[in-house]
Amino acid sequence: MSAVAKLIDTSTADVSTAEADAPMELTDGFHLVIDALKLNGIKTIYGVPGIPITDLGRMAQAEGMRVISFRHEQHAGNAAAIAGFLTKAPGICLTVSAPGFLNGLTALANATTNCFPMILISGSSEREIVDLQQGDYEEMDQLAIAKPLCKAAFRVLHAADIGIAVARAIRAAVSGRPGGVYLDLPAKLFSQVMDAEAGAASLVKVIDAAPAQIPAPSAIARALEELKNAKRPLIVLGKGAAYAQADELVRELVETSGIPYVPMSMAKGLLPDTHPLSAGAARSTALKDSDVVLLVGARLNWLLSHGKGKTWGAPGSKRFIQIDIEPREMDSNVEIVAPVVGDIGSCLAALLEGMGQGWKTAPADWIETLRSKREANVAKMAPKLMKNTAPMDFHSALGALRTVIKERPDAILVNEGANTLDLARGIIDMYQPRKRLDVGTWGIMGIGMGFAVAAAVETGKPVLCVEGDSAFGFSGMEVETICRYNLPVCIVVFNNNGIYRGTDTDPTGRDPATTVFVPEARYDRMMEAFGGVGAHVTTPDELKRAVDAAMDSGKPTLINAAIDPAAGSESGNIGSLNPQSVVKKKK
Ligand code: ADP
Ligand code: MG
């Protein structure tokens, strides 16, 4: 019997008077939250301790859960989100009230935007005081604030409702289009006591949390008809396809249909980027010249130019088929002539069944067009990747890391930055599913260390984190977390002294330019401060050797890779989104 269980609280509604004098085992809110999570197979919590959830974290650890404590809630939240993407089970982030909650909210909103299942659990202050706005410690109406930023938000006032609340949160996070869920747990809830047996009976083990969604046969027939008539068909694989874990079916779809495919960033590696039908390196041609496009778990948002404009060739030249679990995604940007609503596994299985044995493969001239374009692009890039001089530029440094991933295809690559992101996406080939984790739908900076921690914790695989120096700064303090848990994470900071470039100056001569940092900073020493390995490198060969040593040893490592401060371009590949003033003011 635990200390709490020895208490007898006869004021609790569940204690009937008839049984009042019999010794009764009790439980409380703390235990019920932990029991509810454990009952549903949740093994890990990412969070930051503090009022009122300090004991929750401690007790969860004592009960055998893995509790990973971060230095800032945003990174704990990002860890939970990517754990959700990697496992299809909701990642849990635990925070304190108001400020901690707000810090976690960016990650929750980002998870929702990216369709990653996570549950943000935050403690909150006393309802009576918060609602009357009487100035409580960390007073904030957290539920109201979270609501528009996630799929669902719940608050629990009674210990007896914890089981139902956790079940609802799990279902909301993983069913249909996955996303973020907020669970508000006021401080008072944790110490609420109830009969242990009634408490156990109140818990819910969620059965079939993300039920298969079978597509309609008519939708499959319509999609097959479109594909059959296509002359230049193309498959676009999105991170929904990676999330679905229908890897074999994705391969079968591509290989049975013989249709070339373009992977979105986090779908890279679903099939190896070196696959003969990969048109990744001929992306522009593939999007522009295709006639029928099958989207598999990819949205026609800004990352695909909304399905229109120059990227997609002549107006009206495209017919889109879309597989998605969310019916309302259809026609969101352009007309979808064959919507296939369902989970990707079920949809691909049905398409393949419809294709049967004798499906004709895509026309040879189209495949050949893309193949030769791809080879030309690869050949053009090759010399840039092989330069072994100092200072490094993005291409030569990434050339070295490209070889690392080729030699270690099961390593997980985390990637953020501007040039560091855009160029790495194209240069580093991926070979296995769900190995590339990056800034996703928003292009958010600051996911690096949170993603790295969760990738290591959830998979046990080595993690290579390729970070722009600016991007790294958003979550850099979490190197302490990486050292504390001794995680096999190797961070490479592409240090070009600033954002985009390190060469800007303040026209007035007073301050550093807005986009530059301390020149030639030694990020490697941050890692050394916490007992990890630091290295400073200036050539691609040195970089490769340092990364290999880190990956072999599994020790937390940070490699400061000196990049030519003049090498980057403004906003990487998305300079067109960055408005620039054309008005010159008279001095
Ligand atoms: P990308 O940025 O890689 O193109 P998106 O995030 O835009 O990918 O799109 C992912 C899509 O996948 C979302 O529209 C989401 O609804 C969908 N999705 C997620 N999981 C599944 C699933 N299991 N089955 C079908 N669609 C899914
Ligand atoms: Mg930089």
UniProtKB/TrEMBL annotation:
InterPro entries in alphabetical order: DHS-like_NAD/FAD-binding_dom, HACL1-like, Oxalyl-CoA_decarboxylase, THDP-binding, Thiamin_PyroP_enz_cen_dom, Thiamin_PyroP_enz_TPP-bd_dom, TPP_enzyme_TPP-bd
Residue span(s) of domain Thiamine pyrophosphate enzyme N-terminal TPP-binding: 29-145
Keyword Lyase: yes
Domain Thiamine pyrophosphate enzyme TPP-binding: 419-560
Start and end residues of each Thiamine pyrophosphate enzyme central domain: 220-351
Single biological process term from Gene Ontology: oxalate catabolic process
Keyword Metal-binding attributed: yes
Pfam families xref list: TPP_enzyme_C, TPP_enzyme_M, TPP_enzyme_N
Residue spans of biased composition, Polar residues class: 570-581
Region (Disordered): 565-587
Keyword list, A-Z: Lyase, Magnesium, Metal-binding, Thiamine pyrophosphate
Cofactor(s) of this protein: thiamine diphosphate
MF terms (GO), sorted A to Z: magnesium ion binding; oxalyl-CoA decarboxylase activity; thiamine pyrophosphate binding
Family: Belongs to the TPP enzyme family.
Protein name: Oxalyl-CoA decarboxylase
Source species of the chain: Methylobacterium haplocladii
